[in-house]
Amino acid sequence: xxxxxxxxxCVGEGLVALVPATAAPLEDVRTFxxxxxxxxxxxxxxxxSAGIRTAVVSRVGDDGFGRFLTAELRRHGVDDTAVExxxxxxxxxxxKELSPRPDGSVDGTMHYYRSGSAAAAMxxxxxxxxxxxxxxxxxxLVHTSGITPALSETARAAQDALFDAEREGRLLSFDVNWxxxxxxGREAEGRAAISGYVRRADVVFCTQPDAEAVFGTxxxxxxxxxxxxxxxxxxxxxxxxxxxxxxxxxxxAALDVPVVESIGAxxxxxxxxxxxxxxxxxxxxxxxxxxxxxxxALASTRDHVD
Length: 306
Known about the structure:
Layout: E1 7-11, E2 15-20, E3 32-37, H1 39-49, E4 53-61, H2 64-75, E5 79-86, E6 93-100, E7 106-113, H3 124-128, H4 130-138, E8 141-145, H5 148-151, H6 153-164, E9 171-175, H7 187-200, E10 203-207, H8 208-215, H9 220-226, E11 232-237, E12 240-245, E13 248-253, H10 265-278, H11 283-297
Parallel strand pairs: 1-4, 1-8, 2-6, 4-5, 8-9, 9-10, 10-11
Antiparallel strand pairs: 2-3, 6-7, 11-12, 12-13
């Protein structure tokens, strides 16, 4: 019997992360651990861990890193049938640099090597393949972020196609994920593009630093005034989150748990909230689930939950 539970589809670039075995300057690190990364792929794995039927639409290179990434999706129960393999362009990667903090946690700095990657060649044709179009048409929710339109003109066209398509009851989720390096020299264009996606999404996630950088304010109530259109709007900070559903407003503090490193926690938070929405939880219940899943990403230097 076919599975008729809600399907979530995540659209965006998967990356291989090389994570140092020790917290030190890169020139002093001899050993790195390989891991899956990429905002939408992290969210996909967290959604699957929450029991949501999940798939990814993307592109990888015909190389060992690409095969590793798709194998990782399958290992975590995520459908990879709509991940195209590019015979020429490589899989993108980034190197994480870890710096120790006095409290015992570490700060992570990301160094990207993704220019000309297979995923940067995403286009509306990527969404039109039989595998991708079937998944998207079946999806109860599609999740993407502000990273994809910054990768290339064709990737931005793919993002636009997602937002222009008839939704037929499907929710469209958007995480701001402002990446200044990807918008360098065209920051005003990037801010305008992201503001447009926010207005057209059903669910929006935005961190305090991203809100300041893109919208000029991180005050949750001011953000809601600026963007009344999304059904759900979530403003997050290390202290907690404020969530809106229509005119309803609720807030909650982050859970007090040990933090190893925070990169990827926002993706897990988004996945937890989306899992709550897809399973019929209230705004408060979805927010609580978001915090619980985010704590799992805080417990290691990996970007995704396990």
